[in-house]
C-alpha cells in the first residue's frame, strides 16, 4: 500500500461519519471528455497537467454492490474474476487504502457495466466512481461530492468526473497535496444536446490508457505543447456550455481530441488508437457538416467515436449511422 495515498485518504476520512450496513450499493455514469485529460504531474496522486471537462452518459455506466468479507472476491458482469488478473490486482491495491477504515480484511464486489470494458468508453471511470460511492453507502461516511471525487481520482483520474451527472469540470489544481484537484458540476441543463456512440471495436485495448499516457509524456516531443493547448480549449468549451453554443463546443471538442491523438501518435514506439474504421468515420462526419448537418466528433483513448449534436439533427444522424447508440444526457437514455 502506498503511504502517500493512504495519508491522503486518511485526511479526507478524518471527519467523516460512521455507520454500518451489510451491503453498499451505487451507480456511476460513464463520461466522455470534451476537453481531454492526458498526462499526470503526479503519478501517485493522479494529478493532471491540465483541467478537463466531460459530459456524462445518463444511465450508461457501472452498478456496484460491496460487502465486507474475509477475502477479496470480484465479479464483473456476473463472472468471477481471477485474483491474479491485472484488473483484480489494481482493484485490490485501491481497496488497501480503505480496509482499516472499513474494518474489513476483504470485500466482495459485484459490478455490472452496461458499456464495454476497457474499450475507450470510460468504464474504469464509472467503475471506480461507483466503487467509491458504494463504499460511502456501506460505511455511512456521508462524504460530499467534492470529497468523493478526490477519492475516486486515486483509482482512475477520470473517475473523479463520474461522481456527477451532466457537464463536469475536473480542476487540475496546483498544490502538491492534491486537495485542490477535484471535480465539480457545471450548473447547466441542456435538454436538446445528444451524444452518439459509434462502436467500432468493443474488444479490450492492446494498451491501457494509463500505460499509453505514461509512455506519451515520456517520449512524445509534441507533448510539451499539450497542456497549454488543452487549457485554451478548456476555457472555450466551458464558455460554450454556459452559452449553449453547439458549434463552438463541438468544433473545440473535436480539435481537442484530434490534437490529443496527434500527440499520442508521436510516442516512441508509436501508439495509434485509431483503426481504419475510425478514420473513415471521422471523414463521414466532415462530409455531413459540408451538407449542413451540425455534428462533431470526439475520440478518447480507443477506436470508438462519439459524436455531439442537437435533437433537431437526430433523423439525419440515424440515417447516416445505422448502428449508432443515442444518449440523451439530460433525459432518458436512447431518447
What key attributes describe this structure?
10 helices, Ribosomal Protein S5, domain 2, 4-stranded antiparallel beta sheet, 335 residues, Alpha-Beta Plaits
Explain how this protein is built.
The chain is α+β, with helices and mostly antiparallel strands. The chain folds into 2 domains: 3-185, Ribosomal Protein S5, domain 2 (2-Layer Sandwich); 193-327, GHMP kinase, C-terminal domain (Alpha-Beta Plaits, 2-Layer Sandwich). The protein is 37% helix and 23% strand. It has helices spanning 3-13, 86-95, 99-102, 123-139, 145-155, 209-219, 226-243, 246-265, 276-290, 314-320, and strands at 24-35, 40-42, 47-48, 52-69, 73-76, 79-81, 106-113, 167-170, 183-185, 193-198, 295-298, 305-310, 325-327. The strands form 3 sheets. Strands 1, 4, 5, 6, 7, 8 and 9 form a 7-stranded mixed β-sheet that branches. Strands 11-12-10-13 form a 4-stranded antiparallel β-sheet. It has a two-stranded antiparallel ribbon with strand order 2-3. The longest helix is centred in the last third of the chain and has 20 residues, at 246-265. The model has no long low-confidence stretch (mean pLDDT 94).
Order of helical and strand elements: HEEEEEEHHEHHEEEHHHHEEHE
Which sheet architecture does the biggest sheet show? 7 strands, mixed
Distance N to C terminus: 44 Å
CATH architecture of the largest domain: 2-Layer Sandwich
Class of the largest domain, according to the CATH hierarchy? Alpha Beta
What is the CATH topology assignment of the largest domain? Answer: Ribosomal Protein S5, domain 2
Number of beta strands: 13
Q: List low-confidence stretches.
A: none
- Calculate the mean pLDDT score and round it: 94
Please tell me the total number of domains.
2
**In DSSP terms, counting alpha (H) and pi (I) runs of 4 or more, how many helices?**
10
Find the structural class using helix and strand composition: alpha+beta
The fraction of residues assigned to DSSP E strands is: 15-25%
Anisotropy-based shape: globular
Query: What's the multimeric state?
Result: single chain
How helix-rich are the residues, as a percent range? 25-40%
CA radius of gyration: 19 Å
Amino acid at each position: 500500500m502506498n503511504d502517500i495515498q493512504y495519508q491522503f485518504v486518511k485526511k479526507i476520512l478524518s471527519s467523516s461519519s460512521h455507520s454500518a450496513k451489510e451491503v453498499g450499493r451505487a451507480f456511476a455514469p460513464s463520461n466522455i471528455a470534451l476537453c481531454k485529460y492526458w498526462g499526470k504531474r503526479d503519478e501517485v496522486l493522479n494529478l493532471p497537467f491540465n483541467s478537463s471537462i466531460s459530459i456524462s452518459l445518463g444511465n450508461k455506466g457501472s452498478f456496484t454492490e460491496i460487502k465486507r468479507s474475509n477475502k477479496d472476491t470480484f465479479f464483473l458482469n456476473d463472472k468471477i474474476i481471477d485474483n491474479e488478473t491485472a484488473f483484480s490486482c489494481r482493484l485490490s491495491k485501491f481497496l488497501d487504502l480503505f480496509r482499516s477504515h472499513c474494518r474489513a480484511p476483504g470485500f466482495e464486489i459485484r459490478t455490472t457495466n452496461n458499456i464495454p470494458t476497457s474499450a475507450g468508453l470510460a468504464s474504469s471511470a464509472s467503475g471506480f466512481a461507483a466503487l467509491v460511492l458504494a463504499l460511502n453507502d456501506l460505511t455511512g461516511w456521508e462524504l460530499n461530492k467534492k470529497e468523493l471525487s478526490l477519492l475516486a481520482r486515486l483509482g482512475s483520474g477520470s473517475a473523479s468526473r463520474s461522481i456527477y451527472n451532466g457537464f463536469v469540470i475536473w480542476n487540475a489544481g496546483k498544490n502538491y497535496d492534491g486537495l485542490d484537484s477535484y471535480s465539480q458540476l457545471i450548473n447547466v441543463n441542456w435538454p436538446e444536446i445528444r451524444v452518439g456512440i459509434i462502436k467500432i471495436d468493443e474488444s479490450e485495448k492492446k494498451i491501457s490508457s494509463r500505460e499509453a499516457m505514461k509512455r506519451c509524456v515520456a517520449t512524445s516531443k509534441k507533448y510539451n505543447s499539450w497542456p497549454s493547448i488543452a487549457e485554451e480549449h478548456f476555457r472555450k468549451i466551458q464558455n460554450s456550455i454556459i452559452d449553449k453554443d453547439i458549434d463552438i463546443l463541438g468544433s473545440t471538442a473535436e480539435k481537442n481530441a484530434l490534437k490529443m491523438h496527434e500527440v499520442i501518435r508521436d510516442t516512441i514506439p508509436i501508439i495509434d488508437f485509431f483503426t481504419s474504421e475510425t478514420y473513415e468515420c471521422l471523414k463521414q462526419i466532415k462530409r455531413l457538416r459540408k451538407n449542413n448537418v451540425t455534428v462533431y466528433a470526439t475520440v478518447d483513448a480507443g477506436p470508438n467515436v462519439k459524436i455531439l449534436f442537437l435533437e433537431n439533427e437526430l433523423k439525419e444522424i440515424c440515417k447516416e449511422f445505422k448502428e449508432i447508440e443515442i444518449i440523451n444526457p439530460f433525459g432518458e437514455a436512447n431518447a
